[in-house]
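subagent[fold] <- orchestrator: predict structure for attached chain, return tokens only, no commentary.
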Amino acid sequence: MEHEKARLRVSVKPALLRWARERAGLAISEVTKRFPHYEQWEQGVTQPTLKQLEQLAQVLHVPIGYLFLNTPPEEPLPIPDFRSLPGRPARPSPDLLDTIYLCQQRQAWYRDFLTREGSRPLPFIRSATIAQRPVEVAANIRRLLRFDVEERSQIPTWSQALRRFIEQVEAAGILVMASGVVGNNPHRKLDVQEFRGFTLVDELAPLIFINGADTKAGQMFTLAHELAHLWLGSGGVSNVQLRTFPDSEIEQWCNQVATELLVPLAEFRRIYRPGEPRRSALDRLARHFKVSTLVILRRMAEAGVISRDDFWQAYEEELEHLQQFERQGEGGGNFYHTLPLRVSRTFAQAVLISTLEGQTLFREAYQILGIRKHATFQKLAETLGGR
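subagent[fold] -> orchestrator:
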């Protein structure tokens, strides 16, 4: 069979090949490095063999069936799009699409799991409206999560503060998946310029995905922003940035809730010292609230302490400083410790329990966790305290 695949030429429309290549964001020269005759295929001069076409589909991250269509398929985002992408193509990348599809699959599995367990809908989903004051909504979120400023001030690092934040969100019944790659594939890195996170709203199994390619500060703000989307009941893809003040009314509201959640205005005004040098103020307030200086700058701008022009200039300086800091000593980490962050510790534990109890097939568990070997499954169970 493999010998036949290597010899059999298949008819593929050049327009489909061009569409698949551009969809993957690759230039002809990049594809030609792997397939020397690719340019001739796209020009319709020659045709690939079936084996070559299968390999090409894998490289371009496209279902091979798409390449046999008469015209390129439409691939709209399966969830609302709140991104602001001036000057960038609106077409979602295969990496974003596959990440959303994977999270939707995991959410569907988890919803079924909770249904079997007799779980009840979460009352806070869709509990807010855009007419409500962000301060009020942020206070409600803070109370539910037990998100205490004083507790955070005792946490040594931002990375640990982010992990604690994720733990608090998951304890409330929300799945949080944070990853910088598609699934567990280190060769498919997510583009932080395309999106920073998304929310899949569900009253039983809500899910937040955070682009782990972003800075820790950015991830914390994204998590707070996506929480606001859940309270509003309006999920979708966001590319929210601390530096921007979006035109979308929903995004503005979610940003205000996020800022208030992380740095409550009343507490900020209580400890802010007028006339204090900015460098000193940023470092002191960042330590107190256990957020980055970027979030503090955002709060300063929204509180009217600094102008928008001052904010943008200071932001670029702080971003460069923060990126250098985060690159120091931040290795990839142990796979069995990072996997629960990528797929949600709560989700991973549910899959382990269901599988070990015989409710879920092992091969299904491997597929939704993104692992291949039983030894990996066993080691993960040991790491998470499974039996």
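orchestrator: received. Logging for downstream: The first helix runs from residue 2 to 7. The radius of gyration is 23 Å.
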